[in-house]
Amino acid sequence: MTMTQQLLLPSTKEVFNKSEKSKESFFVKMPADIMHYVHVPNYKPEYNYLYAIIVDYYNVDYGYAYPTEWQISRRYGKGIQTVRTHLRALESFGLIKISKPKGNKIYVPYKPLSKRELFEKCPEAQKKFTDNKQAEDAERRRGGRI
């Protein structure tokens, strides 16, 4: 497949209504505050999906998640080296704790900082967020499509 070709998948044509309960669907809970981390320098938005995978594997009875790196790799759609690198990145951003007491690694997902806390601890994130908001406001004043 070349760069100019696109893979098109059919849609269900059903509107996703997040307020409806469904017996056929299972949803992973993810704290909304993690969405602000995309403004942190060197933070990749795909880390949010990896965080959601760890949260989904979290076992309340044990107090940690214990998927293998291969299990994570399959769900994340990335190779093992990328998985390892991205897991270390999540740990460096304070979102998970990785340890290996014996056997497989275990992962403890931490609650993300609130938007206010994040911006206090990382002024660069607040600046990026503010710059984006100002650009949006300027475009709106020019009558541009938002």
Commentary on this structure:
The protein has helices spanning 46-57, 69-76, 80-92, 115-121, 123-141; strands at residues 96-99, 106-109. The protein is mostly helical and 146 residues long. The protein folds into two domains: 37-111, Orthogonal Bundle (Arc Repressor Mutant, subunit A), CATH 1.10.10; 113-146. It has a two-stranded antiparallel sheet with strand order 1-2. Helix 4 (115-121) crosses helix 5. It is globular and about 60 Å long. It starts with 45 loop residues before the first helix and ends in a 5-residue tail after the last helix. The model has no long low-confidence stretch (mean pLDDT 90).
Give me the side-by-side strand order of the main sheet. Answer: 1-2
> Major sheet, described briefly?
2 strands, antiparallel
Class computed from helices, strands and strand pairing: mainly alpha
CATH class of the largest domain: Mainly Alpha
**Alpha carbon gyration radius:** 19 Å
Low-confidence stretches: none
Question: How many DSSP-defined strands?
Answer: 2
Order of helices and strands: HHHEEHH
